[in-house]
Design brief:
The complex is a heterodimer of chains A (228) and B (478). With 228 residues, chain A is of the alpha/beta class. Chain A contains six helices and twelve strands. Chain A is elongated. In chain A, 49% of the residues are buried. Classes of the chains: A alpha/beta (228), B alpha/beta (478). The structure holds iron/sulfur cluster. Chain A: This is Lactate utilization protein.
């Protein structure tokens, strides 16, 4: 007997259950299909403007820095400003994400832009989040041809752009958005829920930022006039 | 699973006499409890979420066979491999096989308790493969050749100075004059030393906090980002997980996540919650080319349908040990099992057998704090009592304890005799202990009085006080 059958057999014997019991099967199938919502905290259930404000407050509590800009066209100069303020070289790495590519980077003549996955030598990475979660100040990033996962972890500084219109009240709403985009039961290879910069408290429980991932997380929330 | 729990008493004596350990344990008392409380107080729905989390896992356990099948089908459909292991030995062999097929010489590891349980590192090393722990705490204890003393803070038993000494000993290629006096400098040194390992590794091994049946996804929850570098840089990602990590849907995972981080570290959400499904997709610029899941039973299926089934709801948050007065005094190593504290006192006998687990079910004061903070509402004290009863039935406890309990049972079954005996003994004890109100030594109770005083009775027995009080209330009622 294979280990698989042995384990499943033991589970059934211990439970006194039958694999073909239609009631058990139905319970499982319906839960998987319906994916019922559980308890959703009231905290994030707010009108859009307050939801975005809560997202910013929560993200700052997690020791991320947050800037709000009006329109995608303002992003490149905001990125350049962040680099200057932090005495960083004028170079960033990013994926080929369309929302990022369509921004007016050419206006930042001094800024060097590398595309594609990070090999660990980049000081700053720029990503675009699929959504944000107001409840906890969390960013939701999905991997794909245009969104390398390495950019989320290898550079020292991670700048993440998110549209204010994509900020959801709770985690479940953000997950529902992924389901909508990829199909029920389907997922991209990696979904990264990111809540603040990397940290460790492993030595004497003292919290230090920048353990293995980015030491700094900078979030640019883009308000697009007319979009909500 | 290596278990040295029968030496619990010896371990506790050593632990109580170890000044470094006692200093480090102060951080548990000071750190975790307040942070958890603040996070819990900030979420009015916390208790409702605990109920929800408990119900999800109960439903999952009752249908575990079916959810495992559904999960397996989804992983396969996304291009991943699923392996099943009944025992630790089978699991190790499967993992070694995967590493060998990948031609692996170096393997990076994210923090995982199940790989501690199956003693993977020693096994890989003996087979010529170098395992590198990348979580800061795990890295430190790997340098020391130790096991974790806490399920979420593996190096909580150490002080900063001890870590500095280890780094100076092992990182001998770095200038001896460097400054390592701050926590920051230690962390950055580990970060610098470990970075190249992620790129050298051929295989990355992580655990899983959740396996989602709906999508075939494995989820890890971390703060450092090491688990992510471990799984995205090498060619092969291996997820090692025990069968009860399954949850039905993404929504179910989200419910439990809300109680996990708050109970563990007092965070609302850990920094990185990473959901991985299969290998990299066509066109993906990074990520592993192969994705394997090793599903391990190792004694869990036998807990189903017994009074210990509830223990399989455990999400390894560590709150029970963070709030345990026994853990606070002796730390995790004293328990002699990879799973310390109250959750270990229940789980270790289930996995390793009661005979091997010695005093663990007795390593409790039954204060009930563990159950009151457990996010999954696991009745830990009740289950420790079940183990004590089994221990007694099987004649596994020492002779003095058995005689004592039998003697007590004889009195307890004869109320008149009990009342008479205590009415004589209590005033006697009270008289002898009157000066200080405490006993420093008591016959037959040396194990108790060696480290704490036994309070002297006030002079009257509980039964006497109760009947007096009853008489008063009865009068009041009239
Ligand atoms: S028993 Fe409860 S409190 Fe202890 S680790 Fe498990 S889930 Fe957390």
């Amino acid at each position: 007997m294979s280990a698989r059958d042995a384990i499943l057999g033991k589970i059934r014997r211990s439970l006194g259950a039958d694999a073909s019991d239609p009631a058990r099967r139905a319970a499982v199938t319906s839960r998987l299909e319906l994916a019922p919502l559980g308890v959703i905290p009231a905290r994030g259930q707010l009108p859009q403007a307050e939801r975005v404000a809560l997202f910013c407050t929560m993200a700052k509590k997690l020791l991320a820095s947050v800037e709000r800009v009006s329109g995608y066209d303002a992003v490149p100069e905001t990125v350049a400003g962040y680099l200057r303020n932090n005495n960083l070289p004028a170079a960033v790495r990013m994926g080929a994400d369309e929302r990022l590519s369509s921004m007016p980077w050419v206006e930042q003549r001094a800024l060097e832009i590398s595309r594609g996955p990070s090999d660990g030598d980049d000081a700053v990475g720029v990503s675009h989040a699929g959504s944000g979660v107001a409840e906890t100040g969390t960013l939701v990033l999905t991997s794909g041809g245009d969104n390398p996962t390495t950019i989320n972890f290898l550079p020292d500084h991670h700048i993440v752009v998110v549209s204010a219109a994509d900020i959801e009240g709770d985690l479940e709403s953000a997950l529902a958005k992924i389901r909508e985009r990829y199909g029920k039961g389907e997922m991209p290879r990696t979904v990264n829920l990111i809540s603040g910069p990397s940290r460790s408290g492993d030595i004497e429980q003292k919290l230090i930022l920048g353990a293995h991932g980015p030491r700094a997380l900078h979030i640019i929330v883009v308000d697009e006039p007319g979009v909500s | 699973m290596q278990v040295t729990s029968p030496q619990f008493k010896k371990h506790t004596r050593a632990a109580l006499a170890n000044p470094h350990l006692q200093q480090a344990l102060g951080n548990v008392r000071a750190g975790f409890i307040d942070k958890r409380k603040k996070a819990v107080d900030a979420l009015p729905e916390f208790d409702q979420l605990r109920d929800s989390a408990r119900d999800i896992k109960n439903h999952m356990l009752d249908h575990l066979d079916l959810y495992l099948e559904a999960y397996e089908a989804k992983v396969r459909a996304s291009g991943g491999y699923v392996h099943w292991a009944e025992t630790a030995e089978e699991a190790r062999a499967i993992i070694l096989d995967i590493c060998r097929s990948a031609g692996a010489r170096t393997v990076t590891k994210g923090k995982s308790m199940i790989t501690e349980e199956i003693e993977l590192n020693d096994f890989l090393q003996k087979n010529g493969i170098r395992p590198v722990e990348t979580d800061l705490g795990e890295y430190i204890i790997q340098l020391r050749g130790e096991h974790p003393s806490h399920i979420i803070a593996p190096a909580v038993h150490l002080t900063k100075d001890q870590v500095e000494a280890d780094f100076r000993r092992v990182h001998d290629h770095l200038p001896p004059t460097r400054d390592l006096t701050e926590h920051e400098s230690l962390l950055y040194e580990a970060r610098r030393v470990l970075r190249p390992a992620y790129f050298d590794a051929d295989v990355g091994i992580t655990g899983a906090n959740f396996l989602v049946a709906e999508t075939g996804t494995s989820i890890i929850v971390t703060n450092e980002g090491n688990g992510d570098l471990t799984q995205i840089l090498p060619k092969v990602h291996v997820v090692v997980a025990s069968i009860e990590k399954i949850v039905p849907t993404l929504e179910d995972a989200a419910q439990i996540m809300r109680v996990l981080a708050r109970s563990a570290t007092g965070q609302e959400m850990s920094v990185y919650t990473t959901m991985s499904t299969g290998p990299r997709r066509p066109g993906d610029p990074d990520g592993p080319e192969d994705y394997h899941v090793v599903l391990i039973d190792n004694g869990r299926s036998a807990m189903l349908g017994t009074e210990f089934q509830d223990m399989l709801r455990c999400i390894r948050c560590g709150a029970c040990m963070n709030h345990c007065p026994v853990y606070h005094s002796v730390g995790g190593h004293a328990y002699g099992s990879v799973y310390p504290g109250p959750m270990g006192a229940v789980l270790t006998p289930s996995l390793a057998g009661l005979a091997k687990s010695g005093h663990l079910p007795n390593a409790s004061t039954f204060c009930g704090r563990c159950e009151s903070v457990c996010p999954m509402r696991i009745p830990l004290p009740k289950m420790m009592r079940h183990w004590r009863e089994r221990e007694f039935e099987r004649g596994l406890n020492p002779a003095t304890q058995r005689t004592g309990l039998k003697l007590w049972a004889m009195f307890a079954r004869r109320p008149a005799l009990y009342r008479f005996a205590t009415s004589v003994a209590v005033p006697l004890l009270s008289m002898f202990g009157r000066r200080t109100g405490r006993f420093r030594h008591l016959p037959l109770a040396g194990g108790w009085t060696r480290y704490r005083d036994f309070p002297a009775p006030e002079g009257r027995t509980f039964m006497q006080q109760l009947s007096e009080r009853d008489a008063v209330t009865m009068q009041g009622a009239k």
